[in-house]
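With this grant's support, we have paired protein sequences with backbone structure tokens. One protein thus recorded is set out beneath this paragraph:

_____
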Amino acid sequence: MDREKIMQGVKLILEGIGEDVTREGLKDTPLRVAKMYEEIFSGMTETADTHLSCTFTASGSEMIIEKDIVFYSTCEHHLMPFFGKAAIAYIPNGKVVGISKLARTVEVFAKRPQIQEQLTAQIADAIADELDTKGVIVAIEAEHTCMTMRGVRKPGTKTLTLAARGAFATDTDLKNTFLSMIK
């Protein structure tokens, strides 16, 4: 990332809203924001395969679920936060991944300018592709501050998205089992 460019941009925004960028409370804000962006957009330099390549041989083919994975992301339309929880299930095809790697996969894609629909699909596709699963499903429930604190201003409103691949896309009973288990 180009820290200097970010700092220049923040300074311009502050000046644009009529602030004095030299006042005590704001003089270090451009640097603080640049450092924050390096952290919250760290997924720009990561790939999911880094985490999903840590697999173990498994003979079972039962559904594995990890739920209540808290994430924070940034809406690419307004550069405002959206946050929530993800739930992931997959049916292994001879190998399983360390359970922390599912949460790390969510983080890779959440730490980018993003839309929730794309985030959900990217997580599902990465797990399906990297683990060669029999099926994967991802559900995300999130609150978008671009909708709750500006615009329509409806705090507490949640957006739900679902992406199903393989057996979860074709077997309604399997999908419904997942949905009932993550309630």
Remarks:
- The chain has eight helices and seven strands.
- The two ends are 39 Å apart (CA to CA).
